[in-house]
Design brief:
- The complex is a heterodimer of chains A (219) and B (304).
- By secondary structure, chain A is α/β, with parallel strands linked by helices.
- Chain A has 2 domains: 143 residues, P-loop containing nucleotide triphosphate hydrolases (Rossmann fold, 3-Layer(aba) Sandwich); 65 residues, no CATH class.
- Chain A has 7 helices and 10 strands.
- In chain A, a hairpin with a 2-residue loop joins β4 and β5.
- In chain A, α3 packs across α4 and α3 runs parallel beside α5.
- Chain A is globular.
- With 304 residues, chain B is an alpha+beta fold.
- Chain B has 2 domains: 187 residues, no CATH class; 72 residues, Alpha-Beta Plaits.
- In chain B, α1 crosses α9, α2 packs antiparallel against α10 and α7 packs antiparallel against α9.
- The two termini of chain B are 34 Å apart.
- Classes of the chains: A alpha/beta (219), B alpha+beta (304).
- Chains A and B meet through α2 and α3 of A and α1 and α8 of B.
- The structure holds adenosine-5'-diphosphate and magnesium ion (MG).
- The site of adenosine-5'-diphosphate (ADP) has 12 residues of chain A, from α1.
Chain lengths: 219, 304
């Protein structure tokens, strides 16, 4: 589903965040991206979401070289991907329901379909009763679960998550990872960047280790 | 397709809702747009009224020739024939001093005062009616010729000030255009600035929307709608101001017109001016929104 072929990413200023990276992630796989801070995990995910473009090499998603995608096709590409962020990126002044509805409104769904899907996704993360609350009124764990629910509400086939448990205590982290595991079981391809190795061991799944922008131990 | 239209409608009225949440800045922007549109429109309507006044007098191009008091009626009649021979003159009427006095007593109600005078103070007068298309320059030449005559005391050429008024009105109309263009420019800047602040306030929302795959059009749309509403509401406010102003001055104008013998009807808002107000308002609102959106939306890229 995702294939990096000799990808190098050099940021403005000359720093090479990724160096000649080649990896392949199969459909329906659950993959953890690990490595020290600054190893290039976020950069790799940003290339998939086209928040950054590769300097050299090819990034293929579903066989399409997205590195060459014209700017106006970026939104369409992003709508195919669910994204989870460390700081969840929920809108503080909107209710949980409105936050969840945003990607569906962007996708152009009807009002009734939106309500149905929002409730289904909230149910999946066990927060059906919180739809009228604002994110501020939720605990950090709950906020992150809403962030995940928003990422899956459009039913993407691919979900990428950047340090989704970075702000959570071990117990909540485990809970979130188990949630990812369940989503993976229903067929979502997942790529999760984390430096929490202990948790990765417990959940199980494939690991890609980055070191100084290079893949150090592909498995 | 139906969803698409529905979404537009929601967005359309949703933008009105988001404006109403910031009532005071919104109201101020609308007020400024309204005033900026009302000013040149009011000037324009004044010019229209001026044109109506000048137009009403344009065909009265008759002028009066006052002879030196004491000249004979005989002389007056001979001069009349002489003037009548002129190509540009259609007819000349002699008003003898006696008749002039009679008319004066009747029309002005000064009868008693005049009766106390032992001598008629009025001279014989000739009223010259030029041909319809007599050029003003020719009339002025006739005037000059008459003034060289020994027994001509004064020539009163009424057309003179009508010409001046017309020239003045042309100038004011041009000023109206310049003012309108400048003010619409100012309104574009004001709306643009208001919407720029709006974009900044909704930065997080824009960033997240872009991350979730919103197209530029999707992100742009609510701000363009806001610009549209500013333009529309500003235009309505301008019309309200103009209507109120008209109401306030129509009474006094009627009284003034009555003093000048009536007949003058104050022209208020007409259709084309109202259309121009709306066109200007929407141009300014949408133009401002567009300029803000073009300059500031692309700056906002998701930072992860
Ligand atoms: N926008 C950027 N501009 C310049 N350098 C960057 C930028 N983003 C990340 N980097 C650098 O690239 C390297 C990899 O960063 P990142 O991909 O965020 O690593 P990780 O997520 O593994 O901590 C780091 O050294 C970081 O400083
Ligand atoms: Mg990172």
């Amino acid at each position: 589903m995702i294939r990096f072929e000799n990808v190098t990413k050099r940021y403005k200023g000359g720093h090479e965040a990724l160096r000649d990276v080649s990896v392949h992630i199969e459909r329906r796989e659950l993959t953890f991206l690990t490595g020290h801070s600054g190893a290039g995990k976020s950069t790799l995910l940003k290339l998939i979401a086209l928040i950054e473009r590769p300097t050299r090499g090819q990034v293929l998603v579903d066989g399409r070289n997205i590195g060459r995608l014209p700017d106006r096709q970026i939104p369409g590409h992003r709508r195919q991907i669910g994204m989870v962020f460390q700081d969840h990126k929920l809108l503080e002044n909107r209710s949980v329901f409105e936050n969840m509805a945003l990607p569906l409104i962007i996708a152009g769904l009807s009002g009734r379909e939106i309500s149905k899907r929002v409730r289904a996704a909230l149910d999946q993360v066990g927060l059906l009763d919180k739809e009228k609350k604002t994110p501020r009124a939720l605990s950090t764990g709950e906020q992150q679960r809403v962030g995940i629910a928003r990422a899956i509400v459009t039913r993407p086939r691919l979900l990428i998550a950047d340090e989704p448990t970075g702000n959570l205590d071990p117990e909540l982290s485990l809970e979130i990872m188990q949630l990812f595991r369940r989503l993976n079981d229903i067929g979502v391809t997942m790529l999760i960047a984390t430096h929490n190795l202990e948790l990765v061991e417990r959940i199980g799944g494939r690991r890609i280790i980055l070191d100084e922008g290079q893949v150090s131990a592909p498995s | 397709m139906k969803n698409y239209l529905l979404r537009h409608l929601q967005n359309f009225f949703g933008s009105l809702g988001s404006m109403s949440r910031q009532l005071i800045p919104t109201a101020m922007t609308i007020a400024v747009i309204g005033i900026a549109l009302a000013l040149p429109s009011a000037l324009h309507i004044m010019v229209l009224n001026g044109n109506a006044i000048a137009g009403g007098w344009e065909h009265i191009r008759n002028f009066s020739v006052y002879l030196t008091p004491g000249t004979t009626l005989d002389y007056a009649e001979r001069l009349a024939v002489e003037i009548e021979n002129h190509d540009s003159v259609q007819s000349v009427t002699v008003i003898p001093a006696d008749k002039a006095l009679e008319e004066f007593q009747q029309s002005a109600g000064f009868g008693d005062v005049m009766a106390t005078l032992d001598k008629n103070p009025l001279p014989h007068t000739l009223v010259v009616q030029p041909v319809v298309d007599a050029p003003p320059a020719t009339l002025r030449i006739i005037e000059a010729q008459l003034l060289t005559q020994e027994d001509v005391d004064m020539v009163k050429l009424d057309t003179e000030w009508v010409i001046r008024l017309n020239a003045g009105l042309d100038l004011v109309q041009r000023i109206v255009w310049i003012a309108a263009i400048l003010l619409i420019g100012a309104v574009i800047i004001i709306t643009g600035n208001t919407i720029r602040l709006d974009i900044q306030n909704r930065r997080a929302e824009i960033e997240v929307s872009k991350l979730l795959g919103a197209t530029d059009g999707f992100v742009r749309r609510p701000f363009l709608y806001i610009g549209f509403w500013y333009g529309l509401l500003g235009s309505c406010f301008a019309l309200f101001l103009l209507g109120t102003g008209f109401m306030l001055i129509s009474g006094p104008v009627e009284r003034l017109s009555g003093l000048y013998g009536g007949g003058f009807q104050l022209l208020g808002m007409n259709q084309s001016t109202a259309l121009a107000v709306f066109a200007g308002g929407l141009l300014a609102g949408l133009g401002g929104a567009w300029s803000a959106v073009a300059r500031h939306l692309s700056d906002i890229q998701p930072r992860v």
